[in-house]
């Protein structure tokens, strides 16, 4: 009985994936697994916050929102685009070429199971959901250490902006 229900559910999911994808490779099963992983991750840190008895703030402080935003931006790009973190992405991606200063363009490997992780690993927008959640958890569980790390990431983002501005100024003044 349960076996036939599971077969019907798998058939329905395959049919839904085929009709949704319109002939394109859209790994809905992988996306479902990623969403389940994110829900599990979020439930785990939420439970840890509750068990520690840490009170939630009434509302986020504006400075914390700014700090978290900039730190999320920088860490997401570091994880998803930086040359130095490419070994972390390599099992799930293929190198295509350089893409901006110290960044790479990579594509997700097409194999089942690797494609979804490869998309997540190369997309700073996708990665930022996980990073923002992790930084939020860190702020609630280990506020001083997390704020210190976020301050470092924010300083790195500022330094990157200054490096790019300096390079642009140099190009403009020297005519290169």
UniProtKB/TrEMBL annotation:
Keyword vocabulary terms for this entry: Membrane, Transmembrane, Transmembrane helix
Family matches, as Pfam families: DUF1360
Bilayer-crossing regions: 28-49
Protein name per the record: DUF1360 domain-containing protein
Organism, scientific name: Streptomyces olindensis
